[in-house]
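Bench notes, afternoon.
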Amino acid sequence: MKFAVLTGGGDCSGMNAFVRAIVRCSINIRPESSVWGVIDGWKGLIYNNYRKLDRLSVAGIASAGGTILGTVRVQELAENVSLQETIAQNLHDNHFDFLFVCGGNGSVKAANTINSIIRREGLRTKILVAPGSIDNDVVNNSGSSIGFYSALDKSLEMLEWIRDTASAHRRVYLIKSMGRDSAYLAFYAGIATGAEYVIRPNEEVDFDKIATMIDERDRDTRIIVAEGYEKSVNEIRVILENLFLKRDIHHEIRTVDMSYFQRGGSAAVTDILRASWVAFRMVKDAFQKCDSGFYTAFYTGHQFPVVPLEIAANDELTSHEDIPNDIIELALALQ
């Protein structure tokens, strides 16, 4: 069988482990198989940019951050039917039996759209998708996205560094976290490191209450701001400084953007293991000529149902903009 493997959207640690597992499992289970890496994500499928992969080409990459295949966002793909049809036809013309994808919310939607075209036109390729995103914004009823815990590890490390300096100078730090419209990364980082407050997307923030908390603590304070919140850390800084001035509160405020530090670096062992396991299951199912589907990044040694792509791509069914109430209660109890 002939396979293609693609890493799409924003990069995350664990994608390379996924690529390695797809290549080695395919070749070791069926030596006659061939695996081709799609260069630069969905863009590579538009321009037929592939590279044949073997055991040696994926040696030593499992823990490396980023993706050896590259990934380029193709913003127009979501609306451009011509590009979608080009990808579907290119997959067919290159005789790919399966396309394996590791990516986030946008990649799931792209895979679903292209899969629909393939089925409609009677083309050959099937598409299997695994979640790869630090945002954790795709269906994850059996765990988290590949890359999420790696980003969380980086967040924890940075927040500990910031606490050292903040406590030495009794400063307030406003810290931006990645996550797009999902607050999972910011919120879990806050719980793990003991941040004093996490501002979530769509939250109606009481800045007076935050100012009071800072004044009553009279020491260092770390406030994490999720990427999807409507105000930037600099705008929040101005609001708080004005409140401090009115209320005679004497604390310096600093801002830090830890976004790209969260996304890079070595993969956590959890992500390496889960990326390897889900890739292994996908390859085995492909050899059984399974249908297209979305594989939740389940825990090593366990198997969970595969979700149809049309369900995984449905925002109303898979939205993770809101943190579960029990997680919020945990965060409040730890303050």
